[in-house]
Structures are given as structure tokens and as C-alpha cells.
Amino acid sequence: MSDFKIDFEVENPNEPPFVDVHRELQCYALWMSGKFGYDNVDGHEIGLSAELVRDLLTWVNSGDATFNHHDPANSPYPDNFLEDGYELARRVRAELPAEWVVTTHHPVRRVRVVVPLES
């Protein structure tokens, strides 16, 4: 990733850049914090591929489509939604430089986890 470039200003120089992959109603799937401050981004701003950005948008839109406005707490997820989200987080991890910390919800353990760098 030697050609990786990000145009955000450094707000917290002593922290690594973080990105959390999760769905919130009518928002992008990526939630940045840390080094570059806080923002909700679609992914192109942090150098993700067009294919991955498209897949992230498709994923959040599928979750939004099943949201029950009358009973939000009992809104169902589409089939394999959490598993698909974890796989998307793995793809995000693979496309970002090693200094980034990528987190997401683990579909089996049901807790937030750091997605490991794979070699």
C-alpha cells in the first residue's frame, strides 16, 4: 500500500486510526475515530476499492430495508447479515495499511472484536 493516501487532517497524532464496521439506520457502514478524528464515511475517503465501497453500501441498505420503524428494538436482520458484516470488515482490514485498527461485531461471539491482520 505504498500509494495509500488519505486527505483527513491529523487530529489525534498519538492515536492510531480506527474504523468500526457496523450498520446504523441511514448511515454508512464505516465509523472512523482516533488519529483522523470522528466521521461516518462510505470508504472511498480512506482509500477502499470501489468494489468494497459498493458492497458496504449494499450491506447497509439491506439492513435498512428490514428496519421496523414501529418496533425498532425488534427489527430483524436479513439472513446472514452479521456474518456478511464480519466478512466485509475482514476485507476492509485487508485493504487498509497495518497502522489502522478495524473493529466489528463478531457474528458468533456477539461482541465487538478487533479484526486481525492476515499475512
Could you walk me through the main structural features you see in this protein, from its secondary elements to its overall organization?
With 119 residues, the chain is an alpha+beta fold. The protein has one domain. Helix content is 26%, strand content 18%. It contains two helices and five strands; from the N terminus they run βββααββ. A hairpin with a 4-residue loop joins strand 2 and strand 3. Helix 1 packs antiparallel against helix 2. The longest helix has 16 residues. It is globular and about 40 Å long.
Please write out the topology.
Elements: E1 17-21, E2 30-34, E3 39-41, H1 50-65, H2 81-95, E4 101-105, E5 112-114
Parallel strand pairs: 1-4
Antiparallel strand pairs: 1-2, 2-3, 4-5
Helix pairs in contact: 1-2
What strand order characterises the main sheet? 3-2-1-4-5
> How much strand?
15-25%
Radius of gyration: 15 Å
Average pLDDT level: 92
Apparent shape: globular
Offer a few descriptive terms.
119 residues, alpha+beta, five-stranded mixed β-sheet, 18% strand, 2 helices
In short:
This protein has 119 residues and is α+β, with helices and mostly antiparallel strands.
